[in-house]
Specification:
Elements (H helix, E strand, L loop, with lengths): L1 E4 L6 H11 L1 H7 L1 E5 L1 H9 L4 E6 L6 H14 L6 E4 L2 H7 L8 E6 L15 E6 L4 H14 L3 E5 L8 H6 L3 H4 L2 E4 L1 H10 L3 E5 L5 E2 L9 E5 L8 H6 L2 E4 L11 H17 L1
Parallel strand pairs: 1-4, 3-4, 6-7, 6-11, 7-8, 9-11, 9-12, 10-12
Antiparallel strand pairs: 2-5, 3-5
Length: about 270
């Protein structure tokens, strides 16, 4: 184990950590991202991500939790290469992105999120999000996808960094528990059709009620942005257009709420 102690916020390794938290271009340049919190870190390593450096505060992180993380690092095969940096609580409070994260922050190696990496079971349930922009919305969708056992979430033409700390935080680690891919809309449509997965686009125009649509076979639920909805490319590629009843004066639910309703309808049909 390569272990050292740092006490100054001016240390270059602390500055690098903060840059990775704040700047997507640094994450892309170095191929690293930041995970904060014991639970999120363990989910991350269980998903096959390898740690680069782990910063820990022994004043906060219990010896039991430290041993658990150490064992998980060893299981990834990165034990010899991973750096361990001990920092005092006053410094941890400066670098922590949020409170209550149990005294551990890690720099992790990024992985490619490709369509080819997805492994689907028979009659899969897939959620597709086109041009999602808000990390909080994507994080909430991932939480619902994890809860409902969705096979994959595909983000098409993303407008947000998949390793944005706000996304990791809002997903409470679901970004690591749900298989994910990013691709263009054209690539995703071709891939779905090649897999025999029916495409259902959520839209208000020319649509049928979502609960009247058969989602028992291979199904892709496709959602657009709240501001502009889906592009014509998806509308034309769809096997069916589906909608959720809007009984009030407004005509739009939050995309994460809409996605959750449709995911659980698919689960209801499959379990009925």
């Amino acid at each position: 184990m390569k272990r050292e102690a740092i006490t100054s916020a001016q240390n270059p390794k602390i500055k690098d950590l903060l840059a990775l938290q704040d700047k997507s271009k640094e994450r892309r340049r170095k191929g690293l991202f930041v995970v904060e919190g014991r639970r999120e870190l363990l989910h991350c390593m269980e998903a096959g991500y390898e740690p680069y450096t782990i910063f820990f505060c022994p004043e906060i992180l219990s010896e039991k939790d430290f041993k658990e993380i150490e064992s998980a690092v060893t299981a990834t095969g990165s034990g010899a290469d991973c750096g361990w940096i001990e920092i005092p609580q006053h410094l941890y409070d400066k670098v922590a992105y949020r409170g209550g994260t149990e005294g551990v922050i890690a720099e992790m190696h990024c992985k490619e999120m490709t369509l080819a990496s997805l492994r689907l079971k028979e009659n899969p349930l897939v959620v597709v999000l086109e041009s999602v922009e808000k990390p909080g919305n994507l994080g909430a969708v991932l939480r619902s996808a994890d809860a409902s056992g969705v096979d994959a979430v595909i983000v098409c033409d993303p407008l947000t960094d998949m390793y944005n700390p706000n996304l990791i935080r809002s997903s409470i680690g679901a970004i690591f528990t749900v298989p994910m891919a990013t691709a263009s809309s054209e690539e995703t449509i071709s891939w779905l059709k090649a897999q025999g997965i029916r495409i259902y686009t959520a839209q208000l125009q020319d649509s049928e009620w979502y609960y009247d649509t058969d989602m028992k076979g291979g199904t892709a639920i496709v959602m657009g942005t709240e501001a502009t909805g889906l592009t014509d490319l998806w509308r034309k590629a769809a096997d069916a257009h589906i909608k959720i009843p809007m009984l009030g004066k407004l005509d739009s639910l939050n995309v994460s709420v809409s996605a959750a309703i449709l995911m659980y309808e698919a689960i209801r049909q499959r379990n009925s």
